[in-house]
Amino acid sequence: MSETVTIDVLVQPRASRARIGPRHDGRIKIAVTAPPVDGEANAAVVELLAKSLGIARSSVEVVAGASSRRKTLRLSGVTAAQIEELLA
Fold first, then answer.
1. If we measure between CA atoms, which residue out of 32, 28, 25, 33 comes closest to residue 72?
2. Per the CATH hierarchy, to which homologous superfamily does domain 4-87 belong?
3. C-alpha distances out from residue 68 to 46, 63, 88, Å
4. Which bin fits 67, alpha (ψ -120 to 50), beta or left (φ > 0)?
5. How many Å apart are CA 15 and CA 33, to the nearest integer?
6. Strands 60-64 and 4-12
7. Residue 19 pLDDT > 70, yes or no?
8. Model pTM?
9. What is the pLDDT of residue 38?
10. 19, 33, 54, 71: least surrounded by Cβ within 10 Å?
11. pLDDT single digits (tens) 42-88
């Protein structure tokens, strides 16, 4: 059964390595190596989450905060439990 999950994230662009977690102020921290220029960091976040969850990149959508470090993402085809497993 596929679900749609909405998550709040805090993106750290230009990190030394890409990683997911831990939580920061109620948001999931996502570090990416891409710079915050021309949507590169957003694309890196989408790619990292899709790869980590085993879903298509088209199943990850930035629904709010496209030009901010604080973003809201909609993930299709995953459960909230799968998201929590990434943080474990």
1. 28
2. YggU-like (3.30.1200.10)
3. 15, 12, 26
4. alpha
5. 5
6. unpaired
7. yes
8. 0.92
9. 93
10. 54
11. 999 999 999 999 999 999 999 999 999 999 999 999 998 999 888 87
